[in-house]
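Hey L., structure's done. Input below.
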Amino acid sequence: MPQEPIERAFQTPSPARLILASISGTVDIQTGDEGVITVTAAKQDNGDVEHTRIEMSQDETGAVTIKTEYGESFWRFFGQRPCDVAYTVRAPRNTALTLKCVSSTATVNGLSGQFDISTISGDLALADLAGPIKINLVSATLKAEKLAGAGEITTVSGKVALAGCNFPSLKLSTVSGAVTIETPLGEGPYDFHTISGDTQLSVQSSAGCAVDFSTLSGRFTSNLPTTHSQQSGRNCHLQLQGGGAAVKFDSISANLDIHSAQSPVATEVVMKSLMPVSAPPAPISPSAPAAGSAPDVAIASAAKARQDILDRVAQGQLAVDEAVNMLRG
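Output:
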């Protein structure tokens, strides 16, 4: 059963600024009245209610900070966990937001400003946000629609779906997890770096772009007419519909598809796998280990290393950007 909620209201200048940190629970941020940020915070009876603290403050610039605090000693020495906290926030349309969540489900809707959002182990839903946006995800799912502004998204193990957006430029880095993006192409650039997560980019039918594609074992497809292509080794340069915005895609084993739902041209495989052909393997001698044992050990070792990195992020020992770099190797 939820505890008695805490309710606060903060008078704010325009544009407003909101900073919120949740370590377990839910966050719901929606458009509210001008000139005021209202907050309702309710502890849930599913953890250490007594030592879970909710702090709210406002600094001299008018920025509002809301956070859940839980002493490190309770995590480390007593094996306890904080209780969930349900945050309901209403803010003016013109509000810049910094949101940091761990083991939380967050929804943000209807704001305009600058956005810096980080989520570890949870679901993130965004809608109708205008302004430059930076998102970092670890073991989290992102579902968004109607985002308008330059985007920078970094994700480790999570699905990303961006519908009905308008990114004049976009930088996306992912280790694993499928990515789907709907946006008209602007000035660019559109820079994608992925290890093993396929990317699907849906654009307007008139879009032209210059694609630089590099992969070891992925492929590139499009239903837009290819007017020029040049391939060298694992790198390929293509122009779709005469060229235009720069699209760069660098991957290990991921695929890129650029398409338009309105295009009458059937999808064509512009570029297949570029995995280099190696010499036949040497015969295995009788004294060699059984087939598959070395790969099995390597896979298990890699999985353990990846989990160790994710655990360190969850414990606050690693930043998300550091984890991404380590997972890329």
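The first helix runs from residue 72 to 78. Residues 129-277+308-329 form one domain.

-- N.
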